[in-house]
Amino acid sequence: MGNAPQRMERLELMLFRVNGVLFGAELHQVGGVFAPEGDTSTGEELTRLDDFFGEPSDLQGNWKVIRLKEKSASGSEWGFLAEDPEDIVNISIDDIRPLPAIVEKLKTIKSLWGSFIYQGEIGLLLDLSGLCRETRSRNASD
Amino acid sequence: MEQGQNPASRNDEILGAVRERLSATQIVDVNEDTVQLVLFTLLGAYYAISGNDIKEILYPGKITPIPGTPPFLLGLVNIRGDVESVIDFNLLLSLPKEPDTPNKRILIAEKNDVKTGIMVGSVVDVVELLKSSIGAPIGTIDDSRRDLISGIATYRDRSVTILDLAKVFQKMEGL
What we know:
- The complex is a heterodimer of chains A (142) and B (175).
- Chain A has 142 residues and is mostly beta strands.
- Chain A has two helices and ten strands, in the order ββββββββαββα.
- Chain A has helices at residues 101-106, 128-141; strands at 10-18, 21-26, 30-34, 46-48, 63-68, 79-83, 88-92, 96-97, 112-118, 121-126.
- In chain A, a hairpin with a 2-residue loop joins strand 1 (10-18) and strand 2.
- The mean pLDDT of chain A is 81.
- Chain B has 175 residues and is an alpha+beta fold.
- Helices cover 18% and strands 40% of the residues of chain B.
- In chain B, the strands form two sheets. In chain B, strands 8-1-2-10-9 form a five-stranded mixed beta sheet. In chain B, strands 3-6-7-5-4 form a five-stranded mixed beta sheet.
- In chain B, strand 4 (73-79) and strand 5 form a beta hairpin.
């Protein structure tokens, strides 16, 4: 058997929505899904992605906190609020598309790294570790 | 690919494999004496873009918004399995919002390696005009748009503002 790296053909994604838009994050990055408790305003350890759409949404319906599996050096956890984070799907890389060049240039959430098509709908691929780093870096510079 | 791999390089590797599968060919039609123009409306006024820069005209479907992008970037559309961006030309040209009507269309435009959908009020026609019939932009056009205009033509007694797509895209990337 050779040592050549095996090309990945499928990604296991956790699907969720924010402001009705479909997102996918690789399941191995997810540490757990919890019901939000108490204060859900933006804080260092709990990010609201819906802020990026303009006005934050009312937290009604099936909102949950998705926690990142990776912990910080100090052991603190990080998570963000999402709607309906229940579906786990296996997506072929044939259903993954790069973000159009103009979107790559203009996006401010650098951890949005691609898109995928699921049941005819476009979803956005999110690197949770990157989003955590981005959020912590933004909070540190504020 | 290992799960412990750096996510950024892992994602680049996946996108590299995806891009390999999406190779495309381009056909360019050149005619020295005439220019093909796609005529469209923004708030009822006639505008045009070179037909060489327009690949397709589509009915608007579902647009997926992208958080953290400028308001003129409306989002992404699924075109037969490909994902393209869509921009709001009115916002980009500092015009008031286009009313929602069934006449709206998306022009899939490509120039200088930038490809995007452009939402317009309606598509009027695709015409061939003599290059000699196209005049220089007139002085009454306001400064914010004059730099984006390559010429003025007439279509059925109406003035048509011809936009320079390369300059429009340059403006968009600078915003």
